[in-house]
Amino acid sequence: MDIDVRLADARDREALDQFYSREGLDFQALSSRGMNLPFGASRETMFIVAASNHTVLAALKLDIGDSKKLGKAGFIQHFEIEDELEGTDLGARMLAKTVEIVEQKGVRALDAVVDEKRVDVIQLYLDAGFEERRIEIYLRRDFRAKIF
């Protein structure tokens, strides 16, 4: 199967919608929602896709914004790959294409947040040259459910 990894364009909207729907996500909400990144608001949003025969097989959302400390910075989220292709080199190819794009745009840093249970995904990022920073901790306070 010939799979093309590239920056998505307007012709990919329907295929992206179908792909994210298969993954249990709403592409319309992902693409229209203004992103507030750890370093501020997003100035530019794009999707990188892996496609074959007009079908999206993997996708990720890339937001680029300005960090006061770094300058231009990127943030990856909603990185999904069809289950049957998760054990292939497709994830590495997606990240390589993303790195190529952010380097062309003069981005100084590229971040991603991954659930600690996804050891396979963490390893994919580490293999692509990312470093584990652990500078954020997710905190929650639960309250007793109220009847009314």
Describe the structure.
- With 148 residues, the protein is an alpha+beta fold.
- The chain has a single domain, classed as 3-Layer(aba) Sandwich (Aminopeptidase), CATH 3.40.630.30.
- The protein is built from four helices and six strands; from the N terminus they run βααββββαβα.
- It has helices at 13-22, 27-32, 90-104, 119-127; strands at 4-7, 36-37, 40-52, 55-67, 71-81, 109-112.
- Strands 1, 2, 3, 4, 5 and 6 form a six-stranded mixed β-sheet that branches.
- The relative contact order is 0.15.
Q: Based on CA inertia axes, which overall geometry fits?
A: globular
| DSSP helix fraction | 25-40%
Counted up, domains total 1
Q: What structural class should be given to the helix and strand makeup?
A: alpha+beta
Gyration radius from CA atoms, angstroms:
16 Å
Poorly predicted segments: none
Give the ordered list of helices and strands. Answer: EHHEEEEHEH
Main sheet specs: 6 strands, mixed
- CATH-defined superfamily: Gcn5-related N-acetyltransferase (GNAT)
Going by CATH, the architecture would be 3-Layer(aba) Sandwich
Summed over residues and divided by their number, the pLDDT gives a mean of: 89
Number of DSSP-assigned strands? 6
Between the first and last Cα atoms, what is the distance in angstroms? 55 Å
**What's the CATH first level?**
Alpha Beta
Number of helices: 4
Proportion of residues in extended strands: 25-35%
Sum up the structure in keywords:
single chain, 148 residues, alpha+beta, Aminopeptidase
